[in-house]
Amino acid sequence: MRSGGSALSWRRWWRSAGFAWAGLVYSYRVQANFRIEVWAGVLALGLAVFLRAPLAPIGLACALVLSLELLNTALEALVDLASPGLHPLARVAKDAAAGAVLVASLGALLVGVTVLGPPLLALVR
Ligand SMILES: Nc1ncnc2c1ncn2[C@@H]1O[C@H](COP(=O)(O)OP(=O)(O)OP(=O)(O)O)[C@@H](O)[C@H]1O
Q: What are the boundaries of the signal sequence (predicted)?
């Protein structure tokens, strides 16, 4: 009984992971900003490995930016569904969501500069 229940949970987990993956693929295909952020993250993580800099802060900063960009995409889709025409509240929702991504991106830039800057400078000196 127990193993049957656990097999069912795993199947559910895989099903949910499949939907999440579909959301990631959709955002990568449709959102140019998401593509840029993915490759900026890959570059930053690659640099951190190369420079033997701490990976955790870079990884967390990348995860934060990408997660907020995904939420921004979800919110844009919802706003377009709920308000196909122009509406001041639709503008507020989209602008605030975009603002969240901007704040996280600036934070990630700060993390990148403070974590990768010193070892990069030491390398070129
Ligand atoms: N239904 C709407 N009503 C009022 N203003 C809107 C509406 N849709 C979009 N806007 C305004 O246009 C801006 C751009 O919206 P759009 O949906 O094109 O997002 P986007 O620029 O494609 O964002 P992203 O690059 O993240 O996909 C919004 O931030 C908002 O100011």
A: none
* Interface predicted TM-score (ipTM): 0.91
User: Which atom of ligand 1 is the closest one to the Cα of 95?
Assistant: 29
Q: Which atom of ligand 1 is nearest to the CA of 83?
A: 1
DSSP annotation of 123: H
| Digit-coded pLDDT (tens) for 29-60 | 999 999 999 999 999 999 999 999 999 999 99
pTM of the model: 0.90
pLDDT in tens, 67-107: 999 999 999 999 999 999 999 999 999 999 999 999 999 99
Give the long-range contacts of residues 95-102, CB within 8 A, separation 24 or more. 97/71, 97/72, 98/72, 100/68, 100/71, 100/72, 101/33, 101/65, 101/68, 101/69, 101/72
Amino acid (1-letter code) at residue 16: S
